[in-house]
Model the fold of this input.
Amino acid sequence: MSLHLILFLTFGAVCVAGAVNLLAQRHPINSALSLIAVMGALAGEYLLLGAEFVAAIQLIVYAGAIMVLFVFTIMLLNAGEEERTKGSRVAILLGVPGMLIGGTLVAWVLLRHSGTGSAPVGALLGDPKTIGQLLFHEFLLPFEVTSILILIAIMGAVVLATKPEATENRKAR
Amino acid sequence: MVPLSYYLLLSSILFACGVAGFLIKRNIITIFMSIELMLNGVNLSFVAFAAHWHRLSGQVFVFFVMVVAAAEAAVGLAIIISVYRTRETLNVDQVNLLKL
Done:
């Protein structure tokens, strides 16, 4: 067993454990923390695949910025433990077997049709320079479009999260 | 050397956990986090395919997925805040009317 495989299995085990813990926990803050663990372990997997820059961005943007937004919202709304209702029991009865069937189906197809290929260690250079050249030459139009998307998202978030009374007061003045 | 199918298997496990969380969780914030988990699973398969076929386009696409996830998180959490403000609950069973 090579070191690469051992590292893959370690990070993969952390990923799966975090994902299952996200489902098992009932308090949203515990789910958020296990999601951060999943994202950190995924950054390790990206490093194994030679994608250094993606791994760094995964930690900074995903585990940093986006999850801080989540934790802020959980604290702002003072979210408590979710209670078990009739709907949640029905959802568990339908959701868990559905997930198992879907996952087994996907795993069967994957293992049957792509068993031969393998991802080489560090053969692909995902360093910032190469990524940047690709991003600003071939993908320049999508890049600009996503910047507009982000701008619209910022404005939408501000409009949605402002208190209605605050805007009315401003209009009255 | 790790077979490509192992990475795809891990990514499908993450995606399936995300789908299950989306279905069985009742807290609207946790449902939102399950969507992030699904996006992460997809990102892993993008990077794995990029390494497999020696194409960096897959890694670049991960950035676009992340941008969409960030925009979605910003707008979605703002919607959650405004839902909580009008209904005082985060349980999706009690949020069953579009109209107040």
Strands of chain A lie at 118-119. Chain A has a mean pLDDT of 84. The first helix of chain A runs from residue 3 to 24. The CA atoms of residues 15 and 38 of chain A lie 5 Å apart.
